[in-house]
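task queued by scheduler; priority normal; single chain, no ligands, no partner chains; default sampling; output format set to structure tokens
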Amino acid sequence: MRNNTLFTFLGGIAVGALAGLLLAPDTGENMQRKLTDEAKRLQGDLNSQWATGREKFESYKTKLKKKQDDLGDAISDATKGSIGDA
């Protein structure tokens, strides 16, 4: 749900910037340059957000794997003790 909000926000910024550029009086060449610059800026922002999200995902994945391994070890230790007692 949080990602949808982020993409909606970024999309709104892109649409607003595009509308502002199209409605402002300027030459075609300047408009193309501005649109290109804005697209590159937005691409950089999106790439940065993607990298941050990927890093967080990898961190959570590593933590979850560690907890899974710890839980497996605890279950294994608990079962060895109870099987030996029987």
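post-processing summary
- The chain has two helices and no strands.
- Helices lie at 2-23, 28-85.
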